[in-house]
Amino acid sequence: MPVITAVPPLDGAARMTASRRGRIWSLVAGQAARHPGPVTASDACAAAVTAVQVTGAWLSAASGTEPGHLMSVTDAVSERLAELQLTLGEGPSRDAAVDGGPVLASDLADTEADLRWPVFAPAARQAGAAAVFVFPLRIGAIRAGVMGLYRDRPGSLSDAQLGDTLLFADIAALLLITADHDGQAGAAGVRTGPAGQPADLAGHRAEIDQATGMLTEQLGVNITEAFIRLRAYAYAHDRPLADLARDIVARRLRLGPDPDPSEVGQA
Fold first, then answer.
1. Total tally of structural domains belonging to the chain
2. Among 36-40, 221-225, 251-255, where is mean pLDDT lowest?
């Protein structure tokens, strides 16, 4: 059996029963009851961790196959996995978003994982992940992002766990698409972004977007090239993308037009 499996998109009505869907919704609602405010896509992400017996999870929102912004994480490793894929431009999240179906990597130490993701796979193992499962968030032709799960030990999802995770992803997609984009109240009454995005994660994405915009002016390139340059610098210097963006926005760091940018010190 291959270690990495791409599951073709399935029709929602064909993979669920009313009772099973009701059980999953109850788990999501139970998660939401732990904080003030409405049920959000982040609740579906968090509820999936215990229900399908994984170590952690993350949820990223995106339009189409473009790099998304991180909406929710359940632990530091989940955040690192999402950050790595955004920085490297490779990994199961990108593949799931492009292909439109789940990508299941039950053993990141397998040769197949290294061949498919030569940079991400070893970095993910170093971060503490042994298996990664990513599900696209989509309803019909609408693509809203991805939900990723990881385990700290290798092992496949059982058929029942896979079926449940597909339902969690369906619910997360529905909640994400229908979320109030003017902001919602999250845990402990903290003001959040779309679908209950924690304020710190929203701030990270805002800084990345602002830094990318600044680079278009500094380097005289388009927005796509500016983001590529930002990712390349972060990878070359082993820095989280959000931290690098923060330094650029604060003018503590300026990237030169040269393909090998270097720090120029304090502004």
1. 2
2. 221-225
- Which DSSP helix (H) or strand (E) runs through 257? none
**Helix (H), strand (E), coil (C) string for 94-121:** HHHHHHCCCEEECCCCCHHHHHHCCCHH
Q: How many CB atoms lie within 10 A of CB 249?
A: 17
14 vs 9, 101, 238, CA distance in Å? Answer: 11, 15, 44
Residue 131's Cα: distance from chain center in Å?
15
**Amino acid, res. 140:** G
Beta-ladder partners of 147: 59, 135
Residue 111 CB contacts under 8 Å (≥ 6 apart), including other chains: none
In this structure, the number of other CB atoms found within 10 A of the CB of residue 12 comes to: 16
Q: Bridge-partner residues for 191, per DSSP?
A: 185
> What's the pLDDT at 8?
54
Q: How far apart are CA 150 and CA 115, in angstroms?
A: 19
CA dihedral 175, 67, 206, 225 (to 10 degrees): -160
pLDDT surpassing 50 at residue 14: no
Q: How many CB atoms lie within 10 A of CB 266?
A: 8
pTM (two decimals): 0.72
Residue 105 near residue 132, CB atoms below 8 Å: yes
Q: Are residues 36 and 167 in the same domain?
A: yes
Domain span including residue 222:
199-249
Q: How buried is 42 (Cβ within 10 angstroms: 0-12 exposed, 13-18 middle, 19+ buried)?
A: buried
Same structural domain for residues 161 and 208?
no
Is residue 150 within 8 Å of residue 121, measured between CB atoms? no
